[in-house]
Write a structure and sequence with these properties.
Blueprint (H helix, E strand, L loop, with lengths): L9 E10 L2 E11 L4 E5 L6 H8 L7 E6 L2 E2 L4 H10 E4 L11 H12 L4 H14 L15 H13 L5 E5 L7 H16 L3 E5 L3 H7 L2 E6 L2 E6 L1 H6 L4 H10 L1
Parallel strand pairs: 3-8, 3-9, 6-7, 7-8
Antiparallel strand pairs: 1-2, 1-4, 4-5, 9-10
The protein binds adenosine-5'-diphosphate and magnesium ion.
The site of magnesium ion (MG) has 4 residues, from helix 1.
Length: 248
């Protein structure tokens, strides 16, 4: 860990992002310190996914600076790979490899990206499968698991890379209601252990209990940023009030 506690782990400064002539991110300024838990919410199309995809360079930004653990995201492939190793990401769709067992899914990136020997990769995989409470599923194929179990596998897979930061993009949106809590519980555990997290989610119970700060986005802008109590009980912006009235 090279970051001192005073320096933010994630810094976005004046970030703009265009898709053609459409501006998806407008002057985004955001700082996240080590161990902070941020929840991002806002209407569909407001730029939430684009913002977090810029953080691990799945999208490149057009203006401004994104600095992760002191390293600025530039076009240098070497720097991008260094940053990607520090940032784990979990998507709405689980994206497990269907032709590989669960444990092999967890070993793959460790072996390919981190060059970790097979036995050690397996040991790490089993460690994180226990953490997400499904070690007994290790030798099954993804199709045999429920959606909630597959998403927990996806979280374990990201953790196998020992990331400094975890990004979640609507991790429970594709799940049947009865499976949402088992995934949120794993995220709550991670938060308690001090993981730095940015979670795009509309699970407002989770936001209220776990987030240090909630960020509300609309039309590519950060409209409001506040602690949960303030955000829910006393939102400042009319746009936030309207959004909350629709989802709560
Ligand atoms: P959210 O995650 O808040 O629903 P997104 O970040 O996915 O929003 O999208 C923000 C806006 O950018 C939307 O209007 C979307 O249509 C547009 N957008 C996202 N990705 C692309 C892309 N690859 N090409 C063109 N437009 C895109
Ligand atoms: Mg999205």
């Amino acid at each position: 860990m090279s970051t001192s506690d005073a320096q933010p782990l994630i810094q976005m400064q004046g970030v703009n992002k265009f898709f053609g002539s459409f501006q998806a991110l407008k002057n985004i300024n955001l700082e996240v310190r080590k161990g902070e838990r941020i929840v991002v919410c806002g209407p569909s199309g407001s730029g939430k996914s684009t913002m977090i995809r810029c953080i691990n360079r799945l999208e490149d930004h057009n203006d401004g600076h994104i600095i992760i653990d002191g390293k600025e995201l530039t076009d240098q492939v070497k720097d991008i790979n260094a940053v990607r190793r520090e940032v784990g990401m979990v998507f709405q769709s689980f994206n497990l490899f269907p032709h590989m067992t669960i444990v092999k899914n967890l070993m793959l990136a460790q072996q390919l990206v981190r060059k970790i020997p097979k036995a050690e990769a397996r040991e790490t995989a089993m460690h994180y499968l226990k953490r997400v409470k499904i070690p007994e599923q290790a030798e099954k194929y993804p199709i045999a698991l429920s959606g909630g179990q597959q998403q927990r596998v996806a979280i374990a897979r990201a953790l196998c890379m020992k990331p400094e930061i975890m990004l979640f993009d609507e991790p429970t949106s594709a799940l049947d209601p009865e499976m949402i809590n088992e995934v949120l519980e794993v995220m709550v555990d991670l938060a308690k252990e001090g993981m730095t997290m940015i979670c795009v989610t509309h699970e407002m119970g989770f936001a209220r209990s776990v987030a240090d700060r909630i960020i509300f986005m609309d039309e590519g802008e950060i409209v409001e940023e506040a602690a949960p109590a303030q955000f829910f009980d006393n939102p400042k912006s009319e746009r936030t009030k309207k959004f909350l009235s629709q989802i709560l």
